[in-house]
Amino acid sequence: MATRQSVDEYLQRCTEAIEYAREQYKTGSQQEHYNQTEYTKALQGLENAVNDINHLSLSANDQQQDQLYRMRLQLQQLQNEMIIRH
């Protein structure tokens, strides 16, 4: 079973991945193709976070699964926005 601390720490890392991706999304909107490497890195970070959430959910209780599900939705929404913009 996932511990509360491990879920909280992972949710914090996801929040950081979202913040980084939003920065790259904003920069990408302003600079077009000039930050391609960082933009791709941000997208990969979001994908890794989604995959890790899926794995962590398997050992989470109901409340933790709900938290992880909500975070996964945020990650995927930003991922979709970045892909469509790209």
Automatic annotation (TrEMBL):
Pfam families named among the record's database cross-references: DUF2524
Superkingdom, taxonomy of origin: Bacteria
Protein name: YtzC family protein
UniProt source species: Metabacillus bambusae
